[in-house]
Each structure stands twice: as C-alpha cells, then as structure tokens.
Amino acid sequence: MLSAIGSLVSMNIDFLQQPPWATLFILVLTTAINLVMSYANKRSMDLDAYRKMMVESAKARKEVMEAMKSGNQRRISKAQNRQSELMKEQNKASMGRMKLTMYVFIPFILIWQVLNGFFGQTIIAYMPFNAPFFPEELTIGNWYILCSISVNIVLSRIIGLTFEIDPDESE
Predict the structure, then answer these.
(1) Full-prediction pTM beyond 0.90?
(2) Cα angle 115, 116, 119; round to 5
(3) Least packed by Cβ within 10 Å: which of 23, 87, 109, 157?
(4) Upper half-sphere CA count for residue 62 (Cβ side, 13 Å)
(5) Are 57 and 86 a contacting pair, CB within 8 Å?
(6) For residue 2, is it within any domain?
(7) 99-131 per-position pLDDT tens digit
C-alpha cells in the first residue's frame, strides 16, 4: 500500500504542463467541478417550484409591459407590486444557491492555488480564432474561464437546472 502511494507521489507529471495534456486536464477538472456543483444545486432546490416561479415572473413582466402600454396608473402599480413580490421570492431561492456556492468556493481557492503554482503563466491552449477579451495564447486562468462557462451551460441543460419557458406558459 505504501509503495503504491510512494510511486504515485514520485510519478513525473510534468507532461501535464504542456498542450494538449494541460488543455485536456483543465477541461476534465472543470467538468468534474461543474458536475459536482450542478448536482448539488439540483439536490438543494425544488426545480418544479423554481420553474413555476420563473413562469410567474415572465407573466408578471409581460403584465407590467401591457400596463405601461395602456397608461393606466392603477394597473401599472398593481403589476409592479406583483413583480416586486415575485422578485423577493426569487431572491430567497437565489440565496440558497449562493450559500452552496460559498461552501464550494473555499475548497476551490485551495485547488486554484495548487494549479496556479503548478502551471504558472504557462501557455496551455491556443485560440483557433480571434475572440474579444481573450488572447490567442491562453494561460490556465483564460482556459479555465472558457471551459467553465461552456461546460456549465451544457451540464445545466442536461441536469435540468435551466429550461425554456414556452410562450403559451407566460400568458
């Protein structure tokens, strides 16, 4: 047992500092972190209630817009009050997700320190095209952000944390 741990510790992992291994390693790590976060979010919230709240919020926004077009102050005030109530409910639901994010953020800072120490400013990926806000040569920070956004969008859809509201539902 100790010899297996010793061989893992003494294993040379410098190959992970260069593309394509560094690129793939960060992509896999990002996927794992986002998978854990998405799963924890799904387990900690009532998705049906959240979806219902989002549909109601869309209805309230539409109601406010129609009231504004009509110019009826009483109707506008009533619609705005309803929208305000729904926003308070959404804030309560969002606070639960924020608490979960804070619990994960602390270990993430430790992981980030290790990764930053290992990779430093090494170029680990190259952009195949010019993109605003991103250089052509990507360090761990740039590459992690791109991977995290991309992976989070896909995982949220797969797990069911994001959804489309049908136009019929908001009427």
Answers:
(1) no
(2) 80
(3) 109
(4) 12
(5) yes
(6) no
(7) 888 888 888 899 899 999 999 999 999 998 988
